């Protein structure tokens, strides 16, 4: 039985990926700091899941969880580096602790996952590291500067490891979804009365479903594309960033103007 380990598995994209792969008969391991959410995700899966309450910022927690999961599953076919947190609002007003937390969870932890996960993935022929980036990794998103910077980092990590790990027989793939309609977007933007959802929609960007990202994850793991783009917003931003950069600049400026 093939096996997938998913961080951020208590909700949103992580939960949807767990459900998608479980339907295909895979053994699923899910990790998150939210123990209640982990139990809720496991209850949705036909055969349940191995659950790990862990903080992705702690290297020892990564090692302990992957040691346990691979001992039970006997292999690791996919490591879904998915955990992430939102952060919105003007960067000039952003609390330093929130900046540090966002960078640590969204980027540093993804690097930890790759660094530690490599040894486990290398044992399974044709394994895959699947990183979750964002449409914010296509063009820097005003009002989401720190978040966008971390997701650009995840995109760069994916590109770098695609080459670095080729000789090890490990595929590296990246998901670039549009902004996903989950409860996380209800978080308020710093320095604004708007939620992150309102900041995103004010910039003219559409929201996508977590289930669509899960389907894309399945295609990404089994396909050859380095990045899989999900949703109309991601497709439009990808096209505009390449062919109409001036329009993208105006779109981001319009988003900031509507926040104030």
TrEMBL record:
Q: Which Pfam families match?
A: adh_short (PF00106)
Q: Which organism is it from?
A: Sphingomonas donggukensis
The name this protein goes by in its record: SDR family oxidoreductase
Q: Which PANTHER family match?
A: 3-OXOACYL-(ACYL-CARRIER-PROTEIN) REDUCTASE (AFU_ORTHOLOGUE AFUA_6G11210), SHORT-CHAIN DEHYDROGENASE_REDUCTASE FAMILY PROTEIN
Gene3D superfamilies linked: NAD(P)-binding Rossmann-like Domain
Q: Which domain of life is it from?
A: Bacteria
In the record, the note on similarity to other proteins reads: Belongs to the short-chain dehydrogenases/reductases (SDR) family.
Could you list this entry's UniProt keywords, alphabetically sorted: Oxidoreductase
Q: Where is the Ketoreductase domain?
A: 2-173
């Amino acid at each position: 039985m093939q096996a997938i380990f998913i961080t951020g598995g208590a909700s949103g994209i992580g939960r949807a990926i767990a459900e998608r792969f479980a339907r295909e008969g895979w053994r699923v391991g899910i990790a998150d700091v939210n123990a209640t959410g982990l139990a809720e995700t496991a209850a949705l899966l036909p055969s349940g899941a191995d659950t790990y309450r862990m903080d992705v910022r702690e290297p020892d927690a990564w090692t302990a969880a992957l040691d346990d999961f691979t001992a039970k599953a006997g292999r690791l076919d996919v490591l879904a580096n998915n955990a992430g947190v939102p952060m919105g609002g003007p960067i000039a007003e952003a609390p330093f602790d929130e900046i540090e937390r966002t960078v640590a969870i969204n980027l540093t932890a993804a690097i930890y996952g790759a660094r530690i996960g490599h040894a486990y993935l290398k044992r399974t022929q044709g394994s895959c590291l699947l990183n979750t980036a964002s449409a914010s990794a296509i063009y820097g998103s005003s009002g989401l500067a720190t978040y966008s910077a971390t997701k650009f980092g995840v995109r760069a990590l994916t590109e770098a490891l695609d080459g670095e790990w080729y000789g090890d027989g490990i595929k590296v793939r990246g998901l670039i979804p549009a902004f996903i309609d989950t409860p996380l977007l209800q978080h308020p933007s710093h320095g604004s009365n708007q939620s992150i959802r309102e900041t995103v929609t004010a910039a003219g960007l559409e929201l996508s479903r977590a289930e669509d990202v899960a389907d894309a994850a399945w295609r990404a793991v089994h396909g050859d594309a380095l990045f899989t783009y999900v949703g109309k917003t991601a497709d439009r931003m990808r096209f505009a960033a390449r062919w109409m950069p001036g329009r993208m600049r105006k779109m981001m400026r319009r988003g900031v103007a509507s926040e104030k």
